[in-house]
Amino acid sequence: MSNKNYYKYKPNTDLSNFEHLIIGSGIGALTTAAWLAKAGYKVAVLEQHYVPGGFMHTFKRKKGFKWDVGVHYIGGMGENDGLKKIFDYLANDKLNWDYIGETYDVANISGDIYEFKAGEENFIKKMTSYFPQEKKAIDKYLKIIKKSNKRTNLFFIQKLFKPLLSNTIGWVIRKRFKKFSNKTTYEVLNTITNNKKLIGVLCSQCGDYGLTPKHSSFTMHALVVAHYMNGGYYPSRGPDYIVKKIIDNINLNNGRVYVNAKVKKIIVQNNIVKGIMIGEKIIKTKSVFSNIGVMNTFNSLLSEKERKICGFKLDKVKPSAGHFCLYVGLDNSDMKLKLPKHNIWWHKSYDLDKNFENSTPNNSSDQFAYISFPSSKDSYWTRKNPDKVTIQMISYGKYEWVKKYENQPWMKRSEEYKKMKVDFKNKMLKKLFELFPETKGRVIQTEVSTPLSTKHFTQNQKGEIYGLEHSPNRFSLPFLKTETKIKGLRLLGQDITSVGVSGAMFSGLMGAIVILKFKFWKEFRKINKPIAS
């Protein structure tokens, strides 16, 4: 296994002794795997990429630079927060978290600056200072956020109900949930205030779930707002260290994680899982979890007959957004350059929907830019790399813009495609130098990814980063549950719950629940005991 804690799958790899096989290695998969392994089950995780972790993995380039690809900050990591306790359980208390600071996000809209402060009182005080006539609207906004999230938590739990409960208590829960999920973010906020600037500011973090206010479900907006309300954190040593420590725990409990293990098919007979196929090899099993997204699972691994059995139908829901990203490396320190830990949400105007609609391959960076400073956030990086800075700059990236290049070989695509990436890089660097002039002349490393890059590494066919779009229709799909109508086939990942690390992790907990049942809740209560102050 060399110095890595995961294994490379080979044709002679024996998987016959594993009770549960999990396809994909994102946080949903690793959560289920670690929980089941600690409960004594034999679990194997199968990842098609050459490194595990899904959107939690990182990549390195020459000159010692390293960037995350999906985890820019995480909320809920205070000492007594439930999410932190779950991470501690999964990683055997081996993780440390760096607090981003009192200000965790800054919105720059038409040149106006708005700081998002940690803590509900601080949030209200700051937003009211920007909009003194909107105090009642801001208070009402937070009340509706809380009300929506209570209903959302119950909605996710009822996904585990058996038919009798689902058709009775579950029906009531779903009906109450739809009051918020069936409305767009803009529709709900427009009932609170008619101040378009305030609406633009409150929605400025919409990139966290990939849909603009007039298209996103308010439910998703409310989840993200609450998740970061008490501030943001970054994993010390980077997101890949989370993956490493959870895999250490899986190995300790006789589980295994394999890379280069691309599953071609889930074998089903008489609506019962019988095994999987990797290459030309069939591996028998009665339990398969898929963490690769519902579209990849149903369209790539199952037959049309099996899709119909499960009620798989996506005629009203699209894949989520794609993106272009510029990875930047500087030859100086964050401290010397006075770069922030917080994220920047730059928008051309307060009409976020219009910004998106007006975006083209040539001007997306003139409409929207998200800037993250991972090296500033990571105290370990700062100690080990005192003269290196890493930055990420993200903008809109529609798959249609790059579709004509999709059949060209990776890393060897046409000059036209390469020019598109160079133009994006130059425009994003210009934006960086405008906002942070001290970075000019310090850039020594750059790399651009597009929706085709996302497709290559994740197999997401439209280069989407958030699975299914988080629109009102998405939350009404009846087949987005952990257990499917095929016995032994279960689903994990953000499509089953919601976007982000916490959403995908919750799907992993649900996966563990269906196997462990009351044993899970007994363990869950233990780890959620309050820490004495």
How would you sum up this structure, described in words?
There is one protein chain. With 533 residues, this protein is of the alpha/beta class. Helices cover 39% and strands 18% of the residues. It has 22 helices and 20 strands. The strands form 5 sheets. The protein has a 7-stranded mixed sheet. Helix 1 runs parallel beside helix 10 and helix 1 packs parallel to helix 21. It is globular and about 60 Å long. The two termini are 42 Å apart. 50% of the residues are buried. The model has no long low-confidence stretch (mean pLDDT 96).
Rg, please? 23 Å
Query: Which percent band covers the strand fraction?
Result: 15-25%
Class per helix and strand makeup:
alpha/beta
Q: What's the number of helices?
A: 22
Q: What's the mean pLDDT score?
A: 96
Low confidence ranges: none
Instruction: Please describe the biggest sheet, giving its number of strands, its sense, and whether it closes into a barrel.
Output: 7 strands, mixed
Shape: globular
**Helical residue percent band:** 25-40%
Spatial strand order of the main sheet: 8-7-16-17-18-15-19
Give the distance, in angstroms, between the N- and C-terminal Cα atoms. Answer: 42 Å
